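As promised in the previous annual report, we have extended the structural survey to additional targets. Below is the entry for CDGSH iron sulfur domain 1.
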Amino acid sequence: MFGSGYRVSAAPLVLTAVLSSYLLYRLLSGRKLGEGRVNLGIHKNLPEVVDTVDIEDMGQNTVFCRCWRSNKFPYCDGSHSQHNAVSGDNVGPLIIIKS
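The corresponding structure token record, generated without further manual editing, is:
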């Protein structure tokens, strides 16, 4: 109770603090949802990334990257696993099986 006889509930203060904390976390977390850029660093000097692979040069199984995070692009190096864990995405590689 305050001196004037009014009772103040803590619920609005707690709710405001929790909501403010969540909004601040979303702002500062670094995870940006809905950004249009997929390719963050592969052949950025080119207007369009196009890779050609001769089917005769492929081994029995060839695994291609679809997440744009591979250090061996256009081939997969497993980088999609970390990308998926961080972003919540579910992208995986393209696997070509030569029969």
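DSSP finds two helices and two strands in the chain. The first strand starts at residue 61 and ends at 64. These points will be discussed at the next consortium meeting with the crystallography subgroup.
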